Structures are given as C-alpha cells and as structure tokens.
What does this fold into?
Amino acid sequence: MVPRWVPVAIALAAILAGAVLEIAWGQTPPVPGMEGLSSDERAFVERNPERWRRMSPEERQRALDRYRYWHSMPPEQRRAVRENVQHFRALPFAERQRILEDFQRWNELPEGRRQELQLAYDRFQRLPAEQRDRILERFRAFQRLPPQEQARVMENYERWQRLSPEERARLRERIQQMSPEERERFRRERRADDPPR
It folds into this structure.
C-alpha cells in the first residue's frame, strides 16, 4: 500500500514542474552579444533587446562606444548636450533637415579637411568678440549679395590668394594711402576689369 503523502508529493512535483516550464516558456531568449559587458552596459542593452538583436556586430560596437563616451562626459557637458537636443527638436522641420544635411556633408569630408576646418573654427572662437562680430556681419552681407556679385567676390578672393605675401603687402599699403574717393574709384575700375557674365 502506498502512503497517502506520495500522491500529494507527486501532484505537488507536477505542479512545480509545470510552473517552472511555464516560466521558462514565458522568458525571452537570451540577448546575444552581452558577453563581457558591465552591468550598466547590460542594462543599456536590455532596455531595447529587439533593436540590439537586429544590429550587426559593428553597429553594436558603435552603440556601445557611444554609450561609453556619453558616460565618460562630465555632467555639465551631458547637460549641454541634452539642452542642444531639446533645442534641435524644437526647430522647424526644414531647419532640422538642413542641419542633418550639413552634418552628413561634414561626415563625408576627408579627415584632413575636417581637421583643417576644426582648426579654423577654433582660431575663430579665440578671436576677440568684436572681431568675430565683424567677420559674421561681413559673411551675412556676402550672403545677401546677388549670386553674380558673390561670384565676383569669390574670384577676387582667389586672385588675392594667388598673390605673393610681398604683393599683398604692397597692395594693402597702396589702398591704405588712398582717400575714400580713390578707394571707390579703384573698386569700380576692378569691377570693370572683371570679365562679363
């Protein structure tokens, strides 16, 4: 004769086994590529496991690199980035689109050209505020010119760039010694020398 507790134990074991299987079936499969990640990085991945699964190994590495870079930033820099993102999102669609296109063009530049532009920007930022304002105002004035006049200005700039330092110095000195009327006449003569468009 079987003791009375044996059927109860078997029923209890079956219920527990069913519960374990149900829990196992309800769990999502393990997320690939989590080996060697810190607990913070695992939490980052687990916030959106489906997106992580769809990523190539290279995309996963880039996402982790960006995550690590973000966490390496000082808090005030992260705050500035958040504010910039909010400002960007508040812009009209056309402006956001223009910025994204500019960013795409920047990324397509060769590394040497990007470094050259970054150095020029850094030099600009070190200028006194009054000088930066004058440069920006001249740029805005240039943008307001009709296309033909912009092309003429660019040709003059390229002609200036081709001059030797000595030729530039002589021309600067000559222009500085002119009266305002002579300078205006000189400008008109230079325009007359330009080829017709």
Observations:
- The longest helix spans residues 5-26.
